């Protein structure tokens, strides 16, 4: 039903869809330019070769395209819902309010970015890295991507929930776009620097490096277990935090 | 005195949104730090042949430069002023639109600059990052002049982008494209010296590095007196070109302005 409603919206606002697609592809292209620029000087990064880092960025675009398609637009609207008291109508519906506020809007344009990135990842891995990918590996990759999606969703939800107390801080969502981009890098980015504070971002570095390790035929080690651990923890925390924050929701006149 | 009062009123207005402004600042803090992490980690693993002190200072200054030297008024100009008609209130005032907008934007830059200075002091101490700054007073003054010109340049460029809304209904894609170009060519991604040589050459032919890269590198003390003088001259030239273009474009665009329903 939600998919159908969103598709009708897409057909009604076609130019908006076109611009969203353009912008989405633009940022996808930018992430590729970024890694090309960085690897121009740095040919390897703690065992990750230049090509593997590029593959990581392509995989990230596949992943983030799905995430933005499913959730980002909803988080963009979050502060508007709280500020204007529109959350009332969601709370009164017979469906879970968290589900509704998270999945009301679907950004089809981002799925196209994801599709293009997915094909590019496959072509890059098979042509430039000469890897053979089996159906089982791709299925395993997609399963881990699903786990990573839950983790990043939980993180965005926990941060967006803060807007129930302070709806004017809608730019927290803009910050999350930036913070999520840390996922393009392997975990050594935060583990191997002298700045220990950045270890708080460690879970983010697992979201794409772990699934991509499957496609790159690299050993997973403890990384998958860590990803599942952080995903479970963050999901439970974000759910609790959302319910806790709703107690403070005072509608539009609050 | 009247201008000073306007200045204070605007400052009161943005002080109400200081937390929101802080989040914007944190946003501008994140990317330079992510890239700094990349370079410091890479230096541990590779022989990069780059001076890490210079790189660390550059990215820390980028936190400050990104929040003070780079104006962000283009969306307000396009959407609020031109498309929703708020430009009318500026046109009725005795001070030109450009200067009113300049005054409004400057407050945000001052507030964010304050956050930036505090952040640099705290972060350089917590993370024990050694900073390298220009020590000669003459060079310091010239570097600061370069920063002022850089801000004027970025402000005028963003005004130009904003007033495209006189002709365009959908400006989002253009703004996002401009953002990507700015990130790459201004030196937000990496200092110009670390770009591939062809891209460095392209960047040098545009005004973008004169908004961020050159003023910050001047503060680090990367240039000779002759080099600094050349940078200031080129900045002044670009500023002249941008300002004249703005006057022409605004003059043509205002004839199309219908206050509402743009």
Automatic annotation (TrEMBL), chain B:
Record-given protein name: ABC transporter permease
Organism the protein comes from: Candidatus Roizmanbacteria bacterium RIFCSPHIGHO2_12_FULL_41_11
Residues that span the membrane, as ranges: 21-40, 52-71, 110-131, 137-168, 180-199, 219-246
Keyword Acetylation: no
Keywords: Membrane, Transmembrane, Transmembrane helix
């Amino acid at each position: 039903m939600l998919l159908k409603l969103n598709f009708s919206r897409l057909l009604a606002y076609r130019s908006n869809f076109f611009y969203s697609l353009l912008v989405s592809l633009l940022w996808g292209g930018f992430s590729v330019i970024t890694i090309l620029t960085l690897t121009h000087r740095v040919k390897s990064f703690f065992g990750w070769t230049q090509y593997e880092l590029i593959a990581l960025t392509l995989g990230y675009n596949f992943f983030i395209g799905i995430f933005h398609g499913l959730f980002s637009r909803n988080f963009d609207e979050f502060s508007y819902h709280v500020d204007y008291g529109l959350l009332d109508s969601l709370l009164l519906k017979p469906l879970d309010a968290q589900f509704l506020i998270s999945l009301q809007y679907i950004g089809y344009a981002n799925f196209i970015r994801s599709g293009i990135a997915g094909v590019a990842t496959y072509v890059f891995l098979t042509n430039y890295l000469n890897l053979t990918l089996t159906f089982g590996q791709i299925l395993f990759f997609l399963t881990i991507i699903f786990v990573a999606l839950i983790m990043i969703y939980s993180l965005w939800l926990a941060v967006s929930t803060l807007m129930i107390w302070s709806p004017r801080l809608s730019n927290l969502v803009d910050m999350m776009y930036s913070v999520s981009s840390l996922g393009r890098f392997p975990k050594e980015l935060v583990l191997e620097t002298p700045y220990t504070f950045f270890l708080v971002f460690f879970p983010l570095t697992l979201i794409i490096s772990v699934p991509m390790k499957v496609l790159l035929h690299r050993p997973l080690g403890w990384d998958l277990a860590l990803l599942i651990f952080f995903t479970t923890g963050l999901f439970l925390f974000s759910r609790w935090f959302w319910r806790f924050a709703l107690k403070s929701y005072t509608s539009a006149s609050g | 005195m009247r201008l000073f009062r306007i200045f204070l009123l605007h400052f009161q207005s943005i002080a109400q949104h200081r937390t929101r402004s802080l989040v914007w600042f944190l946003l501008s803090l994140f990317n330079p730090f992510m890239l700094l992490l990349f370079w410091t980690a890479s230096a541990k693993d590779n022989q990069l042949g780059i001076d890490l002190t210079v790189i660390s200072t550059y990215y820390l200054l980028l936190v400050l430069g990104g929040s003070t030297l780079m104006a962000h008024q283009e969306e307000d100009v396009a959407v609020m002023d031109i498309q929703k008609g708020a430009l009318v209130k500026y046109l009725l005032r005795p001070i030109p639109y450009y200067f009113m907008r300049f005054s409004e934007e400057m407050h945000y830059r001052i507030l964010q600059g304050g956050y930036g200075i505090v952040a640099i002091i705290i972060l350089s101490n917590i993370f024990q990052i050694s900073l390298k700054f220009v020590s000669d007073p003459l060079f310091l003054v010239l570097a600061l002049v370069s920063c002022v010109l850089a801000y004027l340049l970025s402000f005028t460029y963003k005004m130009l982008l904003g007033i495209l809304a006189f002709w365009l209904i959908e400006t989002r894609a253009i703004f996002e494209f401009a953002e990507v170009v700015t990130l790459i060519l201004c030196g937000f991604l990496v200092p110009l010296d670390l770009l591939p040589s062809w891209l460095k050459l392209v960047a040098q032919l545009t005004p973008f590095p004169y908004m961020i890269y050159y003023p910050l590198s001047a503060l680090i003390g990367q240039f000779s007196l002759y080099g600094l003088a050349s940078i200031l001259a080129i900045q002044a030239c670009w500023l002249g070109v941008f300002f004249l273009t703005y006057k022409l474009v605004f003059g043509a665009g205002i004839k199309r302005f219908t206050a509402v329903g743009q």
